[in-house]
Amino acid sequence: AAKKETKDSLESVLLPVQFSCLRHVPWYKETLAERYQRCLDLFAFPRIKRQKLQIADPDDLLPRLPPPRDLRPYPEILTMEYTGHQSAVRSLSVSPDGRWLATGCDDHILRVFEIHTGRLIKQYDLRGTVNWVQFGPVLSCPYLVAAVENEIVFFAASVASLYRSHDKSDAPKTKFDKMFSFEEVRNEPLKIFPEGEADTQSASINTFKQTIPEDDLAKFTFPKESTNGLLLSVRIHAAVHTGSIHRSGDYVAVVAPDDAVRQRRVVLLNIETKKAICPFKLRSLCKDGTKVVGCTFFEHNTNFLVLTSAAAYIFDLKEQSLLKKLRPGGTSLTAADVHPLSGNVICSAHSDAQRSVMLFEGDGEEKPVQKFPAPFAGSTILSVSFHRKASKYPLLALGDTSGHTSIFNVRSLMDDEILDTKASIIPLRNLRCESQAATTAAAFHPLLPWAFTASAKGEVLAWVEL
């Protein structure tokens, strides 16, 4: 009976109706109802019943990080303060043998300290703000570079050790003489950095205030005598803010962000041939007020990093071509450094909303592979530095405006060595100066897990492992 009733109802619904033409065929009245029921089936009747996660502690979702004590050694305790600075310290550098510490200050003084004793060895009155200092990376050609306004001055460093060496090979001496063409420095080597317990030596350096033709990129000037160890002075068109030295010591790159000619805002100096070049096409990269912030050589290839406030650019020095543009994504970059082994680039950035640190793969995509907020909210990171001996000490230092220097462990996700392109960043320690002034510069010891920090109030501190 039920089947017969169903059959009769279907026949009543499906009774044929005749129309004279196709346009007289009406709309199916059950269309909307059927579509509505179909949507309810899709929405209200899931195909798979999903089990919700029962999370008792939200901290369980965070990755498990090893305790900092298992990642020692790294700088932890304050061991020494290098005194005498009367104003903000803009830059500091450690010699490649780990013996000397050079600082550049707003009080126009370039100071050289002995690291282990804190004794002031040498000070130069350069009669201008010392924006950048750096030791040459090669022991066989020891020199110290300082940037004062438009001038880049080169001083001899530990030349007495060089010419008293028992090495029978004349290659180091030949390289030094070929780069600077300065024979007189052999006669009075102890006037530069004393080898014994001598008194502090002070010197006033008159930089060569000579005009430079508009067509020339730089003017190389050699002193007439070996007074105070001055080897060479190079003058360019605009004030130098920072720079970088190639691992071979032959090339020095300087940044002059205020140069009216955008092509000259990054200048490469060949110390051996005494020539200056501008191989980078910065005219299109520095539009709309974009400022060049810094530059860095890569350790194991011919790549070169140019950092602007809008983006970071990787150039090939051999081909003189642009390889890649690293895009931070709507933020302004402040500092950067290149990892000595993997070639990864880490940049600090700030915007109106947040301050962050970005990690880019040297051979990967243009977008950052990792991005994490600044260690201290509201503080802008001014200094980024990797340890040069990264295979033994995988350390990273970030100095910010809050007066903190944050130490991180940067290790690979495989085999605990930084040989992979993807790296994990583990916080270790926050170092803070007593005055809580902004950390303007930070650098690692080239051979030991020590860190050196400089502040806007003239504090230069040494931090060592526990």
Summary, kept brief:
The protein contains 4 helices and 30 strands. It is mainly β and 466 residues long. It has a single domain, classed as Methylamine Dehydrogenase, Chain H (7 Propeller).
Give the helix/strand layout.
Blueprint lengths: L1 H12 L17 H14 L32 E5 L7 E6 L5 E6 L3 E6 L5 E6 L4 E6 L7 E6 L2 E6 L2 H5 L7 H10 L20 E4 L14 E3 L8 E6 L6 E4 L5 E5 L10 E5 L4 E3 L14 E6 L5 E6 L3 E5 L4 E6 L5 E7 L6 E6 L4 E6 L9 E4 L7 E6 L8 E6 L3 E9 L10 E10 L6 E6 L6 E5 L4 E5 L2
Parallel strand pairs: 5-9
Antiparallel strand pairs: 1-30, 2-3, 3-4, 4-5, 6-7, 7-8, 8-11, 10-11, 12-13, 13-14, 14-15, 16-17, 17-18, 18-19, 20-21, 21-22, 22-23, 24-25, 25-26, 26-27, 28-29, 29-30
Summarize this structure as a short list of keywords or feature phrases.
BOP1 N-terminal domain-containing protein; mainly beta; single chain; 5-stranded antiparallel sheet; 466 residues; WD40_repeat_dom_sf; BOP1/Erb1; Methylamine Dehydrogenase, Chain H
Quick one: biggest sheet? 5 strands, mixed
Per DSSP, the total helix count is 4
CATH fold descriptor: Methylamine Dehydrogenase, Chain H
Q: Tell me the CATH superfamily.
A: YVTN repeat-like/Quinoprotein amine dehydrogenase
Identify the strand order in the major beta sheet: 2-3-4-5-9
Q: What is the number of strand segments?
A: 30
Please indicate the percent range of residues in DSSP E strands (runs of 2 or more).
Answer: 35-45%
Level-2 CATH architecture: 7 Propeller
GO biological process, one term: maturation of LSU-rRNA from tricistronic rRNA transcript (SSU-rRNA, 5.8S rRNA, LSU-rRNA)
Protein name: BOP1 N-terminal domain-containing protein
Main location: nucleus
Subcellular location: Nucleus, Nucleolus
